[in-house]
Amino acid sequence: MAARSERAGLITRFAPSPTGPLHLGHAYSACLAFDLARKQGGTFLIRIEDIDRQRARPEWEAQIYEDLNWLGLTWPEPVMRQSDRQPAYEAALDRLWDMGLLYPCSCSRRDIQEAASAPQEGVPRLGPDGLVYPGTCRPGELPTGVRPRETALRLDMRRAMQRIGPERLSFVECGGSPGDETGEIGISPEALVSEIGDVVLARRDMGTSYHLSVVLDDAAQGVTDVVRGRDLFEATRIHVVLQRLLGLASPRYLHHRLIRDDTGKRLAKRDDARAIRTYRDSGLSPQDIRAKLGL
Ligand code: GLU
């Protein structure tokens, strides 16, 4: 895999999960990233986000390549696949464990729901990963010894903030936040603790998580500009924390508007009516798709 130093200039990527058909929202993300790279003489990469082995299917992956090719996009081969990257994820988990920032958690979704809605907890708080973890499994003492396997591991956000210390946390937004802010977006350590909390970095069934993998893979691919939907804007705060803890540079971020259906709802994977395949079959051209997306 090409390291940052081997590729000059801007590097961006499209990182689909092969768990369903490519729809208009994906096409928008992919074309925006591709056009940005083309305009700047940069590189557009693909990464297959297939850590969810239960849901990822080779047929969907094949369909993604076919649809992207049909749209006129090209990219260097081989593509990065998250299913090949487990050793890198394990190494990062070891580092975070050795820093005393992870702890095992055996809570089910239901346990979290119940603990978070206990009267003394007040109103349950919702973060980018669902309910903010109420801390049931968080140990008082730093966990030591060998990192446990086959269990979920959470990041102790308060300790992570102590470790980072007074350094200002921020990232550069080139697209738009949900409130349309651009430029340097500051991240408040207090809000990280109260609004995001102890996120899961290794899921029991995966040995990693979206947040950890995306940060490590963007760094390994030398991505300078992440183009993705605004639904991931809040998660960027988590990604910046992981980049600081692991000594990785933060890319610039361009969060784009979400493509909605005719009733204003966000498109979902199962929304086959807006699958690129369906448009192709009904005789639309790639130019028609671009026109539909305002590109
Ligand atoms: N794999 C994610 C998705 O399909 C994209 C993640 C990202 O661009 O950071 O929604």
From TrEMBL:
GO terms for cellular component: cytosol. Coiled coil: none annotated. Pfam families: tRNA-synt_1c. Transmembrane segments: none annotated. GO terms for biological process: glutamyl-tRNA aminoacylation. Residues 11-115, 194-290 form the Glutamyl/glutaminyl-tRNA synthetase class Ib catalytic domain. Keywords: Aminoacyl-tRNA synthetase, ATP-binding, Ligase, Metal-binding, Nucleotide-binding, Protein biosynthesis, Zinc. GO terms for molecular function: ATP binding; glutamate-tRNA ligase activity. InterPro entries: aa-tRNA-synth_I_CS (IPR001412), Glu/Gln-tRNA-synth (IPR000924), Glu/Gln-tRNA-synth_Ib_cat-dom (IPR020058), GluQ/Sye (IPR049940), Rossmann-like_a/b/a_fold (IPR014729). NCBIfam families: PRK05710.1-4. Belongs to the class-I aminoacyl-tRNA synthetase family. This is Glutamyl-Q tRNA(Asp) synthetase. The lineage of its organism: Bacteria, Pseudomonadati, Pseudomonadota, Alphaproteobacteria, Rhodobacterales.
